[in-house]
Amino acid sequence: MPHTKLYVIPGSAPCAAVAAALELKSITYDRVVLAPLSQLAVGPLLYGGRTVPGMRLGDERLVGSGAIMRRLDQLVPEPRLFPAAGDDARAPVLEAERWGEEVLQSTARRIFNVAFVKQPAAAESYLGDANLRVPRALLRPTQPLIARLAAFRNKARDAEVKPSDLSAHLDRIDAWIAAGVIGGEHPNGADLQIGSSIRFLSAIADVRPAIEARPAAALARYLPPMVGGIGAGALPDAWRPSAS
Fold this sequence. Notes:
Blueprint (H helix, E strand, L loop, with lengths): L3 E5 L4 H12 L5 E4 L5 H8 L7 E4 L2 E4 L1 H11 L14 H29 L17 H4 L3 H11 L9 H16 L10 H14 L5 H4 L33
Parallel strand pairs: 1-2
Antiparallel strand pairs: 1-3, 3-4
Helix pairs in contact: 1-3, 1-8, 4-6, 4-8
């Protein structure tokens, strides 16, 4: 393996999915934690993109959890993240993994953005033991602005963050579990992609009740416990159990 460097931001679901894939394949890597939104400026220089996760594999640059996990399967075939070509299980797993990256992650991000605007101070809880290049004391006053900028960038508004949308996504995930596409003894790429978002969403107190009784909640087991969270009352009233 070439020297591997993973670029992440605190609390990111796709970053957690890639980190879990690296651990699953026993690949040694350096983890570089970037301050939120700093990837827009430094990402193109460091790894060739403006989103996270980003990766450097020697001189090779990769951007995005899906692209990175597919490349890891090429470099270290076992244990596989995706079934081999010709395996009937491959197409459903690829479909679930792409949906997890392109649809579920976006929904989770918007829900978080709306909650983060209401509770910007919660951002520090996601840092854990991260060694940022910017002192935390300097970051704290910027959190409300970062929250609003992130919400604007991701088009996250209260009216567009609906419990019914999340419920439909959870129905789809539960169906994939019932069909054996995900949720097996050994995680595949779709498990990591979807499970990381489930873990991320479960750390938001207003969202947790919608997830915890679902089969989908068990997918979080493929990742380490979540660092950080957002307390109750950060999302619109429709998310309260009493509103249902």
